Structure formats: structure tokens, C-alpha cells
């Protein structure tokens, strides 16, 4: 019996590992959702036992098998926009570039925090836009629901009809530096790290 305990437990991304309670706590490489601990990526399960608790961890074989988890900030490219939602492809989680893309959607009610009933999807996103979004708890398999309802989230890169990278001019507009034509977007308030670095 003792030998079989030594065999590593292999898990896949999104696999339910155990119930999350006072005894079992989600640790590194896992996340908690709806009372259960899930694996963030493919790897081996490790249980760290302490006095009254067990911390469940997953140690990945590679970082490339990581999957989006609720609360993560992701970078995604918009592929389709209609009146109810926009579809996108998740390219990065934090600063990790994914080896395979995941499908995500931003619903109309998750675009911004205020005036939700007045949101028009075409004035928030366009296909080809690069957005920053937060992953919401999953309600359906294979599609990640995303939210841009925070100041720092929304469109970070957009191209005008001329194909030129536009510059944000307000919370709701970006401008083409070539034609000076303004286009409506849900603009992300990006903290310019380069400015901080240059001043140091």
C-alpha cells in the first residue's frame, strides 16, 4: 500500500481535484470555484499537510499548459462584435503568452460598470482590437466569460481604417494620428510603465 502512495497524481487543466473547505485549501497552480478546488494547468498534484489543513498544489510540467482562471487578467483579440456580445481569442494570461488560444466572450452587461443599459457594443469594440479583460467565473464549458468593467480594462490597441495604431484621447474615444478621425471604444486606462522606468 505504501508504494502506490508515492505515484504522482497527474491532472489536466480545469480538472476538479477536491472539495474546498476548512481542511482543503487551493494553493499554487489551483483555483477555487463553487466550493471545489480545480487545477489551473497540467501537472502533478501535491498536497502540503499542515496542522489542521491540507494545501492542494499543482506543479506544472510546463507553464505553456496554463489555463485562464476566474480573476485572471488576460489579453485577447476581438474577432466578432454583435449587439449582445463580442467574441475574442485569449492570447495571454498576465504576461504569459499561451501556446494555444482560448475562446472568450464579453457580454454587453460586462463592458463597463456604469450605464450598462446604454452600452452599444459597436461603440466599445471592433474586430481586430486588442483588449485587457478579467476572467469571470465559468458558466459554460469551452468559453471564458470576460469583463472589461474596470478602468484599467478595455481596448489597449486598435487600428483605424487606415491601418494606423490609434491613440486614446478619452475613456470612450481613440484617434487616428494620420487622419485625426476619432472612433468610439471602451478604452483601457493603461498605466505607462515606460514613463516610470525612464524617470528612474
Question: What is Rg?
Answer: 20 Å
**CATH fold group of the largest domain:** OB fold (Dihydrolipoamide Acetyltransferase, E2P)
**Which stretches are low in confidence, meaning pLDDT under 50 for 5 or more residues running?**
1-5, 193-200
Strand neighbour order, sheet with most strands: 8-9-10-12-11
Q: Provide the CATH top-level class of the largest domain.
A: Mainly Beta
Structural class: mainly beta
- In total, the number of strands is 16
CATH evolutionary superfamily of the largest domain: Nucleic acid-binding proteins
Termini separation = 59 Å
Please provide a written account of the structure.
This protein has 200 residues and is mainly β. The chain folds into two domains: 2-62, RNA polymerase II/Efflux pump adaptor protein, barrel-sandwich hybrid domain (OB fold (Dihydrolipoamide Acetyltransferase, E2P)), CATH 2.40.50; 73-184, OB fold (Dihydrolipoamide Acetyltransferase, E2P), CATH 2.40.50. Helices cover 6% and strands 42% of the residues. It has two helices and 16 strands. It has helices at 2-6, 193-199, and strands spanning 9-11, 16-19, 24-26, 30-33, 36-39, 43-49, 54-60, 73-81, 85-93, 96-107, 130-135, 144-147, 154-157, 167-168, 173-175, 182-184. The radius of gyration is 20 Å and the shape is elongated. The model is unreliable at 1-5 and 193-200 (pLDDT under 50).
